[in-house]
Write a structure and sequence with these properties.
- This protein is an alpha+beta fold and 166 residues long.
- The strands form two sheets. A seven-stranded antiparallel sheet has the order 2-4-5-7-8-9-6.
- The chain is globular, with a radius of gyration of 16 Å.
- The two termini are 13 Å apart.
- The N terminus is likely disordered.
Length: 166
């Protein structure tokens, strides 16, 4: 818990051991401290890492994330994309992810997500101003050969906000 005058950080953001991430280095947790909140309660455990100017947010689909055609449900994909905008702001931009808000999100679905593979939202910041953040990216799944299947493309705008005093 935060001391008087300090803000409670709503996200668990800590480095993960590469051995726990299939040998891939650079991953951090990206989960709500309060696991009953939407992000973690609905999508489950997530990871994030910086890849140069990009931010990769990863979730691990389960049966509960599928639709009747056994693909990852579009609503799950949209939720991951929305959360990825804030992860990118935290990793590569400025501003506080907790109190900020999505102003616009445009998404084009181009394929069905395979629930047997991790689903990644790879986001870049296009422009950042004092109050706004403009982003774009792709939701992808890495194949066994290392290539990526594109599930969706997106662009979004975040309005940066500051936490209110306690």
């Amino acid at each position: 818990m935060a001391d008087a005058g300090e803000r409670a950080i709503p996200f668990e953001y800590r480095p993960l051991d590469a051995a726990d991430c299939g040998g891939e280095a650079g991953w951090f947790t990206w989960n709500m401290v309060d696991r009953t909140r939407f992000n973690t309660a609905v999508l489950g455990e997530m990871r994030v890492r910086r890849e140069g100017a990009l931010c990769r947010l990863r979730m691990f689909p389960e049966r509960r994330h599928t639709n009747l055609t056994d693909n990852v449900h579009g609503g799950v994909t949209l939720a991951l994309i929305d959360i990825s905008l804030f992860a990118a702001m935290h990793i590569n931009g400025s501003g506080e992810a907790g109190p900020s808000v999505t102003v616009e999100l445009s998404t084009q679905f181009v394929g069905g997500g395979d629930p047997a593979r991790p689903l990644d939202a790879v986001t870049e910041i296009i422009r950042e101003t004092g109050k706004m953040l403009f982003l774009r990216g792709q939701c992808v799944q890495v194949r066994a050969d290392g290539h990526e299947d594109i599930i969706a493309s997106y662009s979004g705008i975040i309005r940066k906000m500051r936490s209110r005093a306690p």
